[in-house]
Write the structure tokens for this entry.
Amino acid sequence: MINRRQFLTRAAQGLGTAALAGATDLSLAKDLSGLAMQPEQRPDLNGILGKPHLPAKAKRVIYLFQSGGPSQLETFDYKPMLNKMHGQELPAEVRGDQVLTGMSAQQSSLPLAGSIYDFAQYGDSGAWVSELLPHTAKIVDDLCFVKSMHTDQINHDPAITFLQTGFPIAGRPSIGAWLNYGLGTDNNNLPGFIVMVSTNGGGQPLYSRLWGNGFLPSIHQGVQFRGGKEPVLYLNNPKGLSMDLRSELMQHLRKLNEAEYAHWHDQEIKSRIAQMEMAERMQSSVPDVTDFSDEPDWVFEMYGPDSRKPGTYAANCLLARRLAERNVKFTQLYHQGWDQHDYLPGGIKNQCKKTDQASAALVTDLKQRGLLEDTLVVWGGEFGRTNYSQGKLTATNYGRDHHPGCFTMWMAGGGVKPGMSYGETDEFGYNITKNPVHVHDFQATLLHLMGIDHEKLTYKYQGRRFRLTDVHGKIIKDILA
Amino acid sequence: MDLIQFFGRFHVLVLHLPIGILLMAAVLELYALFFNKQRTKTLQTIWLWGALSACGAALLGYLLSLGGGYNADAVFVHKAFAFAVIGCAFICWFYFCLLSRISSKFAPFITTILCFGQLFLLFSTGHYGANMTHGSTYLFDYAPDPVRKLAGLEAHPTPREKVTDLAQAHVYLDLIGPVLEQKCVACHNDDKSKGKLNLTRLDSLFKGGQSGPAVVAGDLNASELYRRITLDSHDKKFMPAGGKPPLSDIQVKTLAWWIEAGLPQDKLLGELELDDTARSILATQLGLQAAKGSWPLAKTEPLSQTLADELTAAGFVVKQISQDVAYIDLDYSVSRQAFTDQALEVLLKAKDHVAWLNLANSQVSDPQLAALSQLTHLIKLRLEKNPITSQGINHLAGLDQLTYLNLYKTKVDDQVFSALQQLPALKNLYLTETLVSEQALTQWQQKNKTSSLQVIAANYDLMGQNNEK
């Protein structure tokens, strides 16, 4: 029996719920109900778009993010002029109106610093690569270098946020979240967006909002695999709890959550239900993908000795390949420690040693498995470094400050032309002289390769339709295969 | 000048007022007359408003015409009719104000003449005005031939026969003309020549416009036309202006080729020397070959929802290739079961739709491959990590769209090369960690040096001892 009080309370709730439901249908239906709408089309699998705008060249992305801003001048952008003018002042007309960071702006002198490391040309494409990257040098004919990247941001956090979300201030969805929101998943047993941060990097901090969902439903946020033996915690059932019992518990929990959803119509409850179910599937899919025991020795030799130590960049590269084999749409590796303001020669050598072999092995490995065809591999940081020395320039030591004006990235596979170099910088390695590529252009191109028109994947939030490329971005047609 | 243009452009807005108001006045007058209804006095006011709004529209139209870009004769005709409309509207106002006071047996006759006269002038003015905006042929472009004859126009010209041979294509009539006609001529014609540029004929095209010559033989940078169509699409000077559809990449390349080739005119392509790039561009523009990167298969209807559900239930991840391409991308590799014959049966139901298929790591067997040969639209096929042999691959003969075949870590051996002849479109073949020997691979590569097929096989150095056969 319902007493008078309960009756009144429920009636009032019912009215409220009906009103809320009405509002949801009118204004929020398209935006918030990615999981609730049109169940027959399985939008959890096919994303909000249902089908891509155009046939995808790349079905998945592995983004090897080199956090801190690797120096282009010691890696791929060969500038013999800097060696010739080593120690001389940066000409004012080259610097132009470039604003410097507080770290080198007060320096009385800005002496040009040539790379201490030698360069040579490799492959049929004749790409210049420094001696620090002997393994990458072997695969240059599979790579597409973009030498003319530039960004609006001069410090780490805004610059990384800008690259990952298209806006320097936190709060927008990251690339991987957009992709999953738009395209859905190709393997419902694993998250479509997985993030790994190397344990052997160190340096400027990273934040989980860099792989956040922003205003998109939270089901689209990146899932971080921890470095170490257990990439995802609490996957095993507690002692004494059988799988059946656990399943039953989950079913009841789902019922409770659905009742709550019926009451509040909060889409985040739907996300929560979906995440719970994903977690249940991950109990078996994650151990399968993270257990390397089925990899032969030659694979570990290919990725380098670090690949046997869970959590290292090399091991993460190998794991990224295993995730690609299982159709994970967006795998993002972060490797920190590229921020060489001082002691650059030693620091960058160390960084290259940790990353060079595994990066190259990943491309080669994907290629021989036939996966490079539709997997886009991206290598790059958030900005470049200055051509002048920050701090004292000596014969064997120098540092470089942040430089947003130009930096180098490379891409491989997934519909990008192999064995080419796009864009040029001046002989001082300071300004772009040909085919500049802005961060938004890079993002527009990445979405294009995945089959998305970057101007058409939008999300209405607080009265405005947002997109990854904000109101900018041009596809770099010349690098499309 | 700028302010004049600013106001002038309001002409296209304001002109609709006299059209609506005068039309309403004339129709209501005639209605009252013919159906013997009470005539409302408000009609006097409506006539006055019609006349005044016509004056306003005319004034703004005059300002617009000061900006130039319109054929003087066309402006004159439009203007003359506009004055007539204004005159007629004031006469009507005057007459109908008096009408209540005088009564004559001619009154119904005069009313009829005035109203029909006003309507005729109104529509004529509108028509000649619209001709200036859209071009004088706009109205009857798609009219059936009898209607065109009534309007005193020639019947539709028989369209040029579709070119089937690159060498037989006429440079202007088949290549350049159609591009200009489709994207430029609406604003650059005899009547409306924006920027004093007329692109309907070669001689006026060569004459150029107010920014100089439109095209300069052999010099893309000096060719204003080329510069304008290749600007950033957000640039104020980008053409086609005003958000009209831009030229396609291949159209731009065709014009670039024409300028660089020195602007040949009355020539057939066969008479010119063409390199491979030019051939490919021109053949694409003429529709003789598919554009690079375009979808290679014929259009098809989308897969039915029932079948999609059935495939999903059988363990496939089902995705349509894109919004315009209704073929599907099927993935069984993430299903946790072996590829059963039941799944195969469902797959074969969708055989007209499957373009990409991933059966990696699914215990696919040789006999099942025989059935796969029915999937004739297959472009990509992933069979890696399955216990299949060269005999199985032989069954795939006849998949003549197949460009990508992944046999990584399968049991295929040296015999696999003999099956390749049956797969004419194959571009990428993956044979790493198979039983294919290094010798057989080298031998095949020696024999097929010019083949467009790229074979990625074992990295024998790397695998060293571990992969000894």
Residues 2-150 of chain B form one domain. The two ends of chain B are 85 Å apart (CA to CA). The beta strands of chain B are 317-320, 328-331, 354-358, 380-382, 404-406, 428-430, 454-456.
